Amino acid sequence: MSTSTSAVATRSATWAAAARVFVPAIWLGLIIGISFIEAPLKFTAPGITIGLGLGIGRLVFAAMNAVEIVLFIALLAGSIKRGADRAWWWLLGLIGFLLAIKTVAIRPGLSARTDAVLAGSSAGGSLWHYAYIGVEGVLTVALIIALIFAVKRWVRISPQ
Q1: Calpha distance 114→108 (Å, rounded)
Q2: Which of 74, 125, 139, 150 is disulfide-compatible with 20, CB 3.0–4.6 A?
């Protein structure tokens, strides 16, 4: 392997390791900012009706879900490039599974519930909200663990 090829491979591995650190950190910030801060506070703002809050929430959470999918792909790419142990792949599998559950099952259920509330056929509140909160909580813990694993591995393998 030539020196330039070796340098490119090292740089690529460094970027992959960095992705495994920064992607979970960014994802955690997204969840904390939107799910745990913005969403509950939105309905306490003056002038925000249930309909307006639900409409805003639908747009925000759809955008957040799209960003989460991109972040998962980046995390997966960094993991493939960098290599990982079995525990990391299990954790990544859990993160992907939770994201899939949110995307495929819970968000459509919440969307149908939002439609019912906006149509006036439901007073609001549902098990879908509790399911979303539960999955978001487990996803948050999984991302914290992923961040800790990635930082420990990056620090351990970094040249002194």
Answers
A1: 10
A2: 150
For 113-148, what is each residue's pLDDT tens digit? 888 888 888 766 689 989 999 999 999 999 999 999
Q: Give me the half-sphere count of Cα atoms (radius 13 Å) on the Cβ side of residue 60.
A: 16
Mean pLDDT of 41-56: 88
User: CA angle, corner 160, sides to 29 and 154, nearest 5?
Assistant: 30
